[in-house]
Design goal:
Two copies of one chain form a homodimer. Helices cover 47% and strands 24% of the residues of chain A. Chain A contains twelve helices and ten strands. In chain A, a hairpin with a 2-residue loop joins strand 8 and strand 9. In chain A, strands 1, 2, 3, 4, 5, 6, 7, 8, 9 and 10 form a ten-stranded mixed β-sheet that branches. The interface between A and B is medium-sized, with 24 and 24 residues.
Chain lengths: 318, 318
């Protein structure tokens, strides 16, 4: 890590997502700093390990790790891979770690996450959304299993960029970082539309993996659950349409086929539930359901899934 | 049991339902004979025990118990309390235990159970449906826990009764048996309508108790699951209406209030699932969903519940 180049990158929330992309960027020569909490000691001692089915085993050691945000250098890019459920608590840390005019990229699922964080950040910061198409999970402190894929699609949300050209330049800079690190990345014009598109996969699979205690392979092997997933995907597409986002024709069908050919995968919500962490129900269910309903469209199966998950989440918490 | 009176009664399937009503009838002086399988030895040795929150502890010993239907005397009434999933296997036993012109009462939940059994029985037998409004479960071999309620509503399905008056007489005879045993009972004109009405409770609570691993108290304490149950009840009412059965106004609301004031209850499907027995998905979900759909009405939440339960049932079986 002696030949750092380009912008300084901070990783806020070094779980599976932050760990994977942080290690990829650091290996590509970027100057990457990791803010950690519970895993700090393990990462300082053992480094960060990514067991990647795509890139082979990757090891980063030593790691520029921090327990205290006040000790981090000011970063030009901040990649937030933490759970959406902790965004409110993270906002002051993000602001503190940011260099003037820094870009904050929320690498999270769901809808409305940038809207919720925006009022908690200084106006001088750019806020962007990053949609991560990746199968990855945290296996142990400082150890990440990367099972498949990895692309990050980037879109601008809000901030000091004066016009479309300025926004585009910021987005392209983000895309360029990932591509330089060997990670596929595409600039997206419309963040909300991109988030809806990702929800077509996340809304059915995340929740059903919890409710039916099953990975994708089991869910796709059963005719009934497969039909249910397809019906739910169509509901997401209808919800997006009600909100003014025409998603690509045949998207649900393509996702079904792709998932059928994927190795068995347990979505992040499955791990959150089993490890008794709060599930990301607000961003992944409540926000899109409310947005669709505000536009006159109820999504009964997804609402039922949300109600069932909320029941389980409350029991986990209590 | 030396002073037996009236018709001879056979109990086919001495689980919670058959055990409870059989003991109540035998205690009232009826000549009751029990066909048993796995619990035969325990019942011959220890008798039948009903721990009733309504009637106190009830004990029947000795029990007129049979492992082999060929040894049973011919019965005038046959009460079938077994799971709907075993009806096909039970049909020949029912026929064998029946006296000429006997009455067969299916004390089961769901829709279409009589239609399915009818072709497997001799035309000379009367077939009736009995809707049991009771909270009861099998606690151990020969031991039944009776938690609340107990009424049986009786309706005629098919058989040699020549006209409405003859059908009514058979139904009234059944109602009379239960009343003589201290069990509430009402004659119902329309079996299908009575079955739909009972489904308003059974479809939401049975399935959700399995899916959310919760009794009624937990399901009613959470605003989300309560709203979901209400939405599902309304779907059953819509399904019934599509099939030509206008259920009583305000039925769902009354059931919600009644369940809220009930002691915590785990429906039979919960026990079936936990003990890895097949769930009664065909009678309680597939049949009413198909009937509603055949009349142009889809019930999305109940269909989703059925799909989810079918997934769990298949995993339990495999």
């Amino acid at each position: 890590m002696s030949q750092a180049q380009g912008p300084r990158i901070g990783i806020i929330g070094t779980g599976a997502i932050g760990g994977f992309y942080g290690v990829m960027l650091a290996r590509a020569g970027f100057d990457v700093h990791f803010l950690l909490r519970s895993e700090y000691d393990a990462v300082v001692r053992d480094g960060l390990q990514v067991n990647s089915a795509v890139h082979g085993p990757l090891k980063l050691q030593p790691v520029q790790a921090y327990r205290d945000v006040a000790r981090m250098p000011a970063c030009d890019w901040l990649l937030v891979g933490a759970k959406t459920t902790s965004n409110v608590d993270l906002a002051p840390l993000i602001a503190q770690a940011a260099a003037p005019g820094a870009k904050v990229l929320l690498m999270q699922n769901g809808l409305g996450v940038e809207d919720a964080l925006r009022p908690l950040l200084p106006d001088t910061l750019h806020l962007l959304g990053g949609l991560c198409f990746i199968c990855v999970h945290r296996q142990a402190p400082g150890v990440v299993e990367h099972e498949a894929q990895g692309a990050v699609n980037v879109a601008y949300h809000s901030g000091p960029a004066a016009d479309a050209a300025a926004r585009k330049a910021v987005v392209e800079e983000g895309v360029g970082l990932f591509r330089a690190a060997g990670v596929g990345s595409t600039a997206m014009d419309n963040l909300d539309q991109a988030r809806w598109q990702k929800l077509v996969w996340n809304m059915p699979y995340n929740g059903l993996s919890v409710l039916l205690n099953s990975g994708t392979k089991g869910l796709m092997a059963d005719a009934g659950s497969r039909a249910l997933i397809e019906a739910m995907m169509n509901e997401v597409v209808e919800g997006a349409a009600a909100c003014g986002h025409a998603l690509p024709e045949g998207l649900a069908g393509k996702m079904l086929v792709a998932t059928q050919h994927m190795q068995d995968y347990l979505p992040s919500m499955y791990h959150d539930y089993r490890e008794q962490r709060p599930m990301e129900l607000h961003a992944i269910y409540a926000e899109p359901l409310a947005a669709a309903l505000a536009n006159g469209k109820d999504l009964p199966r997804l609402r039922m899934l949300h109600q069932a998950l909320a029941f389980l989440d409350a029991r986990n918490a209590g």
